[in-house]
Amino acid sequence: MILFFRFRNRADERGRSAILTTSRKAFHAHWQAFLSGAALLALAACSSPEPLAELPQWRLVEEWRVGGEADGPHSFDFNLGLGLLPKGGFVHFDYKSSKLHYLDAQGEVVRSVGRAGRGPGEFMMVNGLAVASDGRVIISDLVNGFSIFSDSGAFIRVIKPDAGRLGIGKRWDAIVLADGRIVENLEQVPGRPGGEPLRLVWSSDLMHADTLPSASCAAKSTGPATRIPLKDSTGKLLINSPLSNAEPRKATAVDVSGSTWEQLDRARGEIVRHGLNNCEVMLTINLPGAPESFDPAAKAMMVEMVKEEAKRWKAMEPEFGALPDQGAWYQGLYLDPAGNVWVERVGANRNFRVEIYSADAKPVAEVRDKSLPVFPMITATHVYGLARGEDDVHYLVAWRLEKGG
Asked: Is 2 within the bounds of a domain?
């Protein structure tokens, strides 16, 4: 199976695709058929959501960055997962070398483990990682199963689940719950009508998974579809290709208890909190303003991107029908240690901002004209993640969180 992955960095690119340097594109092309995540295209906006009035303004101030190397632990252009370790430091998986790299709290190299293969501690088809509260690093490998490593890089064991693995389409989006179970979001599933998200919860021994009632919680959309079905010559559905910027890139935020924040009705600017195994709404965040509008040029770029996907999948020419007139209400949802919900939004001229809401859904603060990085990791004092530098490669960056007001 061939893999493909493309970064979508919002902070530095302001709407440009995260294109790798020429020397890296040759290798990058060999991964196209597996992870085909849509690159962030320019989104033409005609209006800006109303700001939250009189909120404290928080700032992200860069403290350090590492990276920029073509290969090794400080190469992030082939990154397929980034995690913050509980005792400090970071772990990231490089699918070019099939290695798991460990960095310290300042981003300096500590250790690299693993290699390509089917044996214990080896990797074949990794699509992401998750870090447990005890420091264990869980690697999702669609061929080998779950590989477990310690927070220092020692191989612990590999678990081959009884159930077959899904996951073709996007990076593994998962969180380890306090009881050891794993909640896995599958945002793009081949063969499912309409491309509805599917949410699984893996048992604490990682041997089997049950489907959570995510899709049943969501209201049936009456607006234009945000995904285009790609079919082969027999009419078989190959994949539902998402339209760029028509859906959130990170649509849910789940805490270690399993409580879930998400938008159940795409037509309404409401983000609700409900339980892991039920659809009962506990809290609601009402987003101010309205989603941004697409102009004809933005719609044309949507079409071209889907046509490119159709070529990769050797699919028939897709039928587009009505395209959405507006983008998503928000671009991503994230949680910090205090339970605050960080809602990333975009306004006119690609002006990003982040709205922060408390665990009880009250507005807390705002970060204006600042997008969260790729793979954001939020602590009480810092935000960490990947950002593209002036040399057109990615760096691991630490921003100090300054809370004003």
From this structure: no
Total domains in the fold of the chain: 1
In the chain, which stretches have pLDDT less than 50?
1-49, 188-191, 193-194
Q: Which two tokens stand for residue 58?
A: 């928080």
Determine the structural domain holding residue 278 and report its residue range.
10-403
Condensed to tens digits (0 to 9), the pLDDT of residues 179-192 reads: 999 999 875 444 45
pLDDT tens across 367-398, in order?
A: 987 789 999 999 999 999 999 999 999 999 99
Residues 6+ positions from 324 with CB-CB distance below 8 Å? 223, 224, 225, 226, 243, 246, 294
Nearest alpha carbon to residue 185 among 141, 128, 240, 146: 128
pTM of the full structure: 0.85
CATH number at residue 161: 2.120.10.30
Contact 372, 344 (CB under 8 A): yes
Residues 6+ apart with CB under 8 A from 154: none
Q: Where are the alpha helices (DSSP H) in 130-280?
A: 214-217
Q: Does residue 1 fall inside a structural domain?
A: no
The answer as to whether 3 is a domain residue is no
Strands (E), 70-181: 79-84, 90-94, 99-103, 109-113, 126-131, 137-141, 145-149, 155-159, 173-176
Q: How many CA atoms lie within 13 A of 112 on its CB side?
A: 14
Q: Which pair of structure tokens corresponds to residue 312?
A: 């990769």
Task: Decide if 113 is inside a domain.
Answer: yes
